[in-house]
Amino acid sequence: QVQFVESGGGLVQPGGSLRLSCAASKIGFSISAMGWYRQAPGKQRDVVALIRSGGSTNYADSVKGRFTISRDNAKNTVYLQMNSLKPEDTAVYYCFVDSPGRRYWGQGTQVTVSS
Predict the structure, then answer these.
(1) Beta strands in 30-90 (DSSP E)
(2) Beta carbons within 8 Å of 46's beta carbon, 6+ residues apart
(3) How do residues 17-64 score in pLDDT, each as one tens digit?
């Protein structure tokens, strides 16, 4: 069973920065992609960013230019650097890893942007 350790969430003022990390362990397969989704109260879970094994990335339009995703393949760890945070970025952020045919989810970390 894949296990995750997520960290880096918290409370930050508008315009501030946070860096999320997600380390996956007990990986018995080749990871094709890693990334982050987020879910605000009363809303569906939406993709924030993903990074493929070759390094290509995709971002939600709402975070382009503010968020940067990266990964350390040797450590099976994915990072999300979040800058210029806005109140609308408030959500639970979930990391994921993709194996052939299945997606595994982390437990989520809360990010709150408020003054």
Answers:
(1) 33-39, 46-52, 57-59, 67-72, 77-82
(2) 37, 38, 39, 60
(3) 999 999 998 887 888 899 999 999 999 999 999 999 889 999 999 999
